[in-house]
């Protein structure tokens, strides 16, 4: 079955949404893992930084700017904590 060219933009948009959602879920999992676990400083930083960036991306995509600001601040705090 051949896909018509008119269906392509819809499929690309659907794939884009799925990718954003996947990044958001990975971010959530990373932050919960960092919170629940007992890790060395580097691993904790990577989990918190990756998680907050993932959530920041999905929040910006969905235009939930309040949550995006919190996650942006989480990035800053994580970097600060790593270097102090």
Folded structure, characterized:
By secondary structure, this protein is mainly alpha-helical. It has one domain (25-83). The protein has helices spanning 8-36, 41-61, 65-83. Helix 1 (8-36) packs antiparallel against helix 2 and helix 2 packs antiparallel against helix 3 (65-83). The radius of gyration is 16 Å and the shape is elongated.
Short descriptors:
mainly alpha; 84 residues
Please provide a brief summary of the model.
This protein has 84 residues and is mostly helical. The protein contains three helices and no strands.
How many E strands?
0
* Overall geometry: elongated
Summarize the biggest pleated sheet.
Answer: none
Which structural class is indicated by helix and strand composition?
A: mainly alpha
Number of helices: 3
Low-confidence stretches: none
